[in-house]
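On clarity, I found the account of how folds are encoded harder to follow than it need be. What matters is that the chain and its backbone geometry are given together, residue for residue. I therefore recommend that a typical entry be quoted early in the introduction. An entry of this sort, consisting of the sequence and the corresponding backbone structure tokens, reads as follows:
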Amino acid sequence: MRSSLSAAKSILRSRGYEIRAELVPVRVGGYEISDVDLLAERGNDLYAVEVKNGKLDIGGVRQAYVNALLLNSKPLIVCRGFSDAAAEALAKELGIEVIVLDDLMISDPEELRRILREELRSALIEVLPSILYPSELDEEDMEILRAIAKSSDFLEAASHLGMTPDKLGNLLKDMRSKGKIPKWAKDYVQVKGWAELITSRG
């Protein structure tokens, strides 16, 4: 919610709105029945702004409309689209302004870093094997790499292969000397990363 709220404030400011308050309670007869995410002002108009993490449904449209009425303001919703045609039609019928956020509009730095890491890893897995895949890898080599890819450490990989650690070490040394494992992959973590890249396409 924090990233959506930050994105909503940014886009509202870019459209000439001034943010007056956040998390404003909605009261009836002295009882707090709800709240609105933002109060924003543009010109002489005050807007009760509802910010949705996901898509807007009919319930969300109704809530925004009622809250705005109780706050003597205009309803405005920031969301990532409509859940169905009925929600869109109701918002239009009630005169509710809806701003749709782009799915890639993220203002929270941690969320952005997480997404970039995931996308980079996916891109590397997709591209690197086609560039670096050693054509001389045989089925025995692939079996070794598959075991390494799914093992957390060297001993576990040897166990999966049903061989001693010494034998696996000698096989890996031989594969490296033949260019089947890159020279930069010097420790188990690096070899495992390479194995994951290769076997993801194999």
In short: The mean pLDDT is 82.
